[in-house]
Amino acid sequence: MSLWIFTPEQIREIEKAAVDAGYTVNQMMQDAGREIAARAVSMLDGISSPRITVLVGKGNNGGDGLVAAALLSQMLPDSDSAVPPRPARRRSADAVRARTRRIRGLCGRRP
User: Fold this and answer.
1) What is the tens place of the pLDDT at every residue in 3-15?
2) Most buried pick, 5, 100, 104, 105, via CB within 10 A?
3) Predicted model pTM
4) How do residues 74-92 score in pLDDT, each as one tens digit?
5) Which domains, ranges and CATH numbers included, belong to the chain?
6) C-alpha pair distances (Å), 53 with each of 28, 43, 69
């Protein structure tokens, strides 16, 4: 497996070129999340009853992580995801459930 390292400025340039070519930010997020999930599953090959936990932060890759978590929840029934609450406010249980439904909807999973 190759590892490419880009500076934040290089990533901004790549993303701008992709958007200029008609590729949406949502498409980039979906593709990145799918790739993360696929690589994670491939790393678990040969492990019986694999279990994975996805920790998603608030950074710019948070959307990618949410897509990966939603896909992994479909691919690996015992997977878990943890999304930290926004520090500026507390969320009600209803708000957390609504957010979970939106996350699942990202990957076409029924809420």
Assistant:
1) 788 898 998 899 8
2) 104
3) 0.66
4) 888 777 766 666 655 556 6
5) 8-106 (3.40.50.10260)
6) 23, 14, 8
